[in-house]
Amino acid sequence: MNVEEGGIPGIGRPSQARWVLMLLLSTTMYGAHAPLLALCRIDGRVPFRPSSAVLWTELTKLLLSACSLMARRQPRLWDTPPWRQAAPFALSALLYGANNNLVIHLQRYMDPSTYQVMSNLKIGSTALLYCLCLNRRLSARQALALLLLTGAGACYAAAGLQDPQGLLPPPPAAAMPLHVTPLGLLLLLLYCLISGLSSVYTELLMKRQHLPLALQNLFLYSFGVLMNLGLYVGGGPGPGLLEGFSAWAGLVVLSQALNGLLMSAIMKHGSSITRLFVVSSSLIVNAVLSAALLHLQLTAAFFLALLLIGLAVHLYYGGW
Known about the structure:
Largest sheet: 2 strands, antiparallel
Oligomer: single chain
Distance between the termini: 27 Å
Shape: globular
Order of helices and strands: HHHHHHHEHHHHEH
């Protein structure tokens, strides 16, 4: 097995049934994030600091990784000093942290709808870096599949759901006209580049290190906790670390933590392209839960996106 296939001595890929279950669970958790977050709202506002939710999510990932590692009961896990194995994950944490902050700053230079549509360009940047950094080649059929996947995301973001009864409060920028500034376009391209780079770099790192996934997660989320703790402390005064949390908020944190661990397994045993399909397919779960829990209305654009995703999966993983 080579690097791209996840060839790790003594660490095999999960069985097909477990692999399919992991993909379905990750897709479901990705899609459930936005609807669950909407259920946390009180009077149209999220009552807790987003940075505190992210910090709790990283802490939960770290704790689960530590428990998983201790359960393995392996007295010797590395042949080189642990800091040499851990240090490369600092770059992964830095890239993910930079991207999360870029999302916030991008809203200043474009309207939310434009961002939702154009952010799907990260599918192309991830595929390009996947080919360049991992020395992989995509066939014309696979490239077309990723193009359809990009179109599906843009289609759903543009008009996949409607709120005809006005049950949800409009976002602060609801009346903002469609626009994007030159600086916004530049930052968006940087966002897509960093998104692809963080995904491909983490995949390469996890596959090249002959270490248990739980230990690699321990390294990654240790840096993640440190970075997000700094962001929380540097964010200035605001609600406390647990202030405003509810059962729904706890479910958001737990689901995102579990999804992070599942995605690590997908990156180690699958690929960055697999991750793209999981994230894109999650819009189906997002739409169904939004319709069921938030009483939003599915539009023709959603069904078009659903068709495009089905075609993309068939082209990339199936035959003609």
